[in-house]
Design goal:
By secondary structure, this protein is an alpha/beta fold. About 40% of the residues lie in helices and about 20% in strands. It has a domain at about 5-150 and about 175-200 and about 260-275: NAD(P)-binding Rossmann-like Domain (Rossmann fold, 3-Layer(aba) Sandwich). α4 (about 85-100) runs parallel beside α5 and α7 packs across α11 (about 280-295).
Length: about 300
Amino acid sequence: MSEKILVVGGTGMLGWPVAMALAKEDFDVRLMTRNPDNVKRKIGWKIKVVEGDVTVPESLKEPLDGCRSVYINLGARMNIGDFEVIEHKGTVNIAGEAVKAGVERIGMISVLNAGQATGKNAYIDAKTKAEKVLMDCGIGYTIFRCCWFFESLPKYIVSGRAMIFGRQPHKLSWMAASDYANMVVKAYRSDEAVNRVFHIRGIEKYTLDEALEILGEVVFPGLKVGHTPMWLLRAVGAVSRNKTARGMAHFSRFYDCNPETVREDNSEQILGPALTTLRDWAEEYKKKADSRAAI
């Protein structure tokens, strides 16, 4: 009998590849979303879509019913007003209801810098607090502290130009969401991954400029990469009523000043290595884009 797992936040850039990878490996996947009808129109293959809202504990009971495992991929995005409500308190609600439902395994995606940013970055602080919720809930936990993903790079490109906030001088680890999804599957298959925090990195390190330049070479020939000064970003964030703009300013300031946290562990031995290079990923991205354009 297939292991039933609830994927919370499985419709986005990182959650969807995980849900698909779990389904391909014969997990009985339930994908929880606030808008199930929108999701059902684009899927239907081996995945049951259920309705739930992490801010409403009562709504989590039915999705969790009968599930042995839970994987959490919450999406506060860059909305600074949602960091605490979604990432931290949402995890409190999920873990609390998971305990009541008799769940045996629970995991979440986090960030490499978690545990470091107390008082400096609201998003990372919320992830840090969410991690502690899982560690303290009494269920076997697995936390994936992840590096940066190739899938985020096209989001920096608007009207044929890439724009970076601040200098962003530090080299960062990069990986493909598909490689990460395979690691999650292996973690949920392995007893060695229980009650562990894994530090997940790709096989390449680039500054944001370097990564966008490679993407431009493969997918967007002639792509220009520019920078918005941090002082201007701070000013926009301070006066803007747009919570996403404020969140982006807050997030970018942190990474402009703080290098990526490096902690060595045996993640590769248990979860397997990342295999995809940026050029490999970019070539595949281009093929898909060309295929869509031809329809």
